[in-house]
What does this fold into?
Amino acid sequence: MTETTVPRRGTAAVPPAGVVTETSDAAFAADVLEAGVPVLVKFTAAWCGPCRQLTPVLAALAAEEAGRLRVVEIDVDRNPETAARHGVLATPTLMVFRDGEPVRSMVGARPKRRLREELADVLD
It folds into this structure.
């Protein structure tokens, strides 16, 4: 876990705005599917170099879009059910969920500028 990631302990707590939070198979529905704002999910793994490269990009995006976009990450090795349910075959996979449904999927690390371009219609 990194400095910019806040672990989730149960589903009762509301994650702070502007930070990347960690979710799990058990908390995914509450943290992502039932969220009132679009949620960008990073499917990640501890051994994944490109996943680590995305960490500061997603932290900056979470801070800039606080209140409009929630950013969470889920470790695919510790949470295989959610990864399988959403067809995640590679890390990092970024998926945007709105109103409980996936609306965008992207595979691989990318700079913040490109990610913002790819998310423009989701954030409007």
About this structure: The mean pLDDT is 89. Helices lie at 28-33, 49-64, 80-85, 112-123. The first helix runs from residue 28 to 33.
